[in-house]
Every structure is written in structure tokens, then in C-alpha cells.
Amino acid sequence: MSDKFVAAIDQGTTSSRCIIFNQDGAPVAVDQREHRQIFPKPGWVEHDATEIWSKVQAVVAGAIAKAGLRADQLSALGITNQRETTVLWDRKTGKPVHNAIVWQDTRTAALCTELGGADGQDRFRDRTGLPLASYFAGPKVAWLLDNQPGLRERAEAGEIAFGTIDSWLIWNLTGATDGGVHVTDVTNAGRTMLMNLETLQWDQSILDAMNVPAAVLPEIRSSSEVYGTAHGQVAGVPVASALGDQHAALFGQTCFGVGDAKNTYGTGSFLLLNTGQRPVPSENGLLTTMAYQLDGEPPTYCLEGSIAITGALVQWFRDQLGIIGEAAEIETLAAGVEDNGGAYIVPAFSGLFAPYWRSDARGVVAGLTRYVTKGHLARAVLEATSWQTREVVDAMYQDSGVHITSLKVDGGMTANNLLMQHQADVLGVPVIRPVVAETTCLGAAYAAGLATGVWSDLDELSSHWKQDAVWTPQMDEEKREKEFHNWRKAVERSFGWLEEGD
């Protein structure tokens, strides 16, 4: 076994996880724990940031123990995180002033409409690459400052710190109230709607428009550099990377070339296309965002298609409807029928993200007849992920002119062979899964290892990538386009469910 090890913390939407990798990029130990999902009102989603920090400490200790290592044998520690989720905390006590507001939360929809004014969703797009939507962190900060009594005054006085989850973890890892480092990286800062994509700095005009005081903001740094040294259970280990989860997956999939694309299938799904060292504006509902930035080097940009609900639809099928007992059972149930029986499920539970950005949409089941069984519905649940991905790939071509020739995939849903085959069928290109499917953690480890000399360069990282499985298209063009047409009809029927005042 290699004698250098890097730990990666993956603080996701539903769980905290730590994976330790050796110098060959192979995982040697993993520990994972779920954390609570808090739903105070319809459309509101929160996390307890204190609970998250506790779970992170537990999984780091668990992974080190399972690997049979001591903390001082770690060369570096990297972080990847659920993006846009917003934490405000007291700099003196270290305690959050409110539950974290999760990326899925829609409470800021009205605020975003108000901020857009006559310019609408595109008011800040030329500087941030993002549409005004409840998805992003900036409006969440503004909402908290406006709705927690006395908080704005404390924030303006410098008593309050804001961060996405990476900032919260780095601050705690590096000492918290005892000198904790308050930083974020370009990938996470780029998802606040407060960072200028060209300058990679906070944009004062947007801060003024949202009424967010600069005193709460972390310093923006690259994705791969030593931010500080850990305290506590991993004392002395360099904290050396931060990447939003989708950017980390792109990095872990070694999508370093222009035109390389990956899709991560988790709670939602996120398809990123590397566009090189220039931001490509989107006119088709995509996000122009950071891919990553290495220390001392120019940034790399990408186009992103963000799909709110994919794996979460399977959870809904399991937990709310009770049709299956375990998530993995959906493949067996869906395989029991030849097709979807004419049924389509559009999971607009909290609106639609790319390429529509319709916060007024809500979920629909379309095409129901008495012929439809739970097996057909199971297949429709899986196919919803494939069709949403197809819409994003089409939009990427329209924006960039790049036809993807294959799609690298990762995340838990890639274990579902029926889904992966359907994904290849509806895209018309091969779908490829790597040996290390948990590429989010791997990307964070790679970036931390680059910063600390575990790996020398991107070429060395690329040499570690290995194919595990490939699915090739088997659906004929006529059937593909007919079913896509039906999917689009179902999507249109989800529009306009929420009306002004709802």
C-alpha cells in the first residue's frame, strides 16, 4: 500500500462522509452518517449546522480508525460540500444564529422576483453567470439578515460570519473561535451570486443591491491550496482544498480538457461541461460557473445544468408512497415491465431548475390510464432522470456548439443498470462509469494532494482514471424522439401551478 494518504470530507445534502485515499487514488476506508432534514414550512428546507459539524468530526475519526492510521499519517485534508446551503454564525461564540438554509429551499422566490425588477432573472447574469433564483446563497443571506431581529446590525458590526458549508467546516477545522480561518474557494463563492466571474472577487454593486454587508463574507481563495492547519482530532494536517460537490466530481473524473463532461446522480443531478479558461454565457437556461482553480493558475470555467430532483424522486417513491422498501428495489420493479406504459413523472417538487428555471412549476404525473401499474410508475421515476439530463445536454450544445461524444457518470444512481442504459439510449452516446464511482470525494482528495505534493500534476491524476462499465445506445432515433416529445408535453403541464400570492 502507498505510504501517503489524503482524507476527503464530503458534506452532502443528506449525509456527512469521509473517505481516505492512497497515493494511487484508491479508497482505503470510508465512514458515513446521515443528518436530519428539517422542513419548517412547505418549500422550506433546513439543516442544523452544529449537527453537521458533529457528524463530520465523527466520520473523520471513523475513517481514520477503519484505515488503521494515525491522524499524523494524513498528508492533507480536502473538503467537498453541498453548494449554496447558507450558514450564518457568531464569530465570538462559534454558534450558528439560525439553521442552515439548504440549496433546495424556495423561501427566497419572492425576494428574487423583487430583486430582478424590470430586468427579471438576468439582472446579475452578466457578472455572475447565474439567473436570479432561490437556489443561490446570496438571497438566502439577505433573507436571514432581514428576518432575524437584530441580525443585520450585528452583521454590519462584523460580529457575524457567512459561509457556505465549506467555509463553516474550514473555520471549525482550523480552530473556530481560536483563530479559525474564514475562507471559501472560487467554486463555492461562484454559487452565492455575489462573486464576479471575471475578477473572482465579491462584487460590491451586487452586495449593495442585495443589502449584504461585506463584513460577513469569507476571503475567496483557489480550490487547491493550504488554507490552514487543522486543530483537534486531526491536529497538524493541512486543510488544502475546497470544491463544491459538482466541481469536485468534475475534478475527480479528470475532466481537464475542453469538451469533457460528467453527470453526478445524487439527490439532484448536475451535468458539467468543461469550457476552458473562458466563461461561456448561456442563453439556454444553463449556469456559467467555475470548474476549479489551482493555486497560482488561471481559473477553468464550465457550463452547468442543475437538475433539482433525481435521486430524491426515488426517495419520494420509497418514503412518501411506500411502493418500495429500499431504493435499490426500484430497478427490479421497473424491469418487470417493458416500458413506462405511457406515464411520465415530472418531479418539480420545488420548481424546475435547468433549463427552465420555473419556480412556479410543481410535480405532475401525466399520461395515466388504468393500464398503468406500479412497475410503469417505477420506470417513469427512473426515466425522469434520463429525460431531464437529455434536456440539459441539448442546451449545452446550443450554448457551446460542443457535441459530447460520451458522458462520464458518477454517484449512487449509477449502480442502477436500467437507468444507465436508458440514459445512453436517450442521449445517443456511450455512458461511462469509472472504477471509483465516488468521484466527489476523489476530486477533493486530488486537489488537496496537489497542493501538498502527494501528486505532481493533472497528467498524473489522469493516469489513475479507469473505466468500470460502459452502456451504449440501443434505442432507435424515431422512438427516442417520440418519447422525448411526450416528456416535453408532460413538463409543460407542470408550469404555472403556483400563482402570485400562493
UniProtKB/TrEMBL annotation:
Positions with a binding annotation for ADP: 13, 17, 267, 311, 412, 416
Documented EC number(s): 2.7.1.30
Keyword Ribosomal protein applies: no
Residues the record lists as binding sn-glycerol 3-phosphate: 13, 83-84, 135, 245
Domain Carbohydrate kinase FGGY C-terminal as annotated: residue spans: 262-451
Keyword terms: ATP-binding, Glycerol metabolism, Kinase, Nucleotide-binding, Transferase
Carbohydrate kinase FGGY N-terminal domain mapped to chain residues: 7-252
Key word Transcription present: no
Catalytic activity: glycerol + ATP = sn-glycerol 3-phosphate + ADP + H(+)
Lineage: superkingdom: Bacteria
Pathway: Polyol metabolism; glycerol degradation via glycerol kinase pathway; sn-glycerol 3-phosphate from glycerol: step 1/1
Residues where glycerol binds: 83-84, 135, 245-246
GO MF entry, a single one: ATP binding
One Pfam family matching this protein: FGGY_C
EC primary class: transferase
Gene Ontology CC terms, in alphabetical order: cytosol
Ranges that cross the membrane: none
Single biological process term from Gene Ontology: glycerol-3-phosphate metabolic process
Binding positions for ATP per the UniProt entry: 13-15, 267, 311, 315, 412
Activity regulation annotation text: Inhibited by fructose 1,6-bisphosphate (FBP).
Role: Key enzyme in the regulation of glycerol uptake and metabolism. Catalyzes the phosphorylation of glycerol to yield sn-glycerol 3-phosphate.
Protein name: Glycerol kinase
Species name: Streptomyces nanshensis
Gene that encodes the chain: glpK
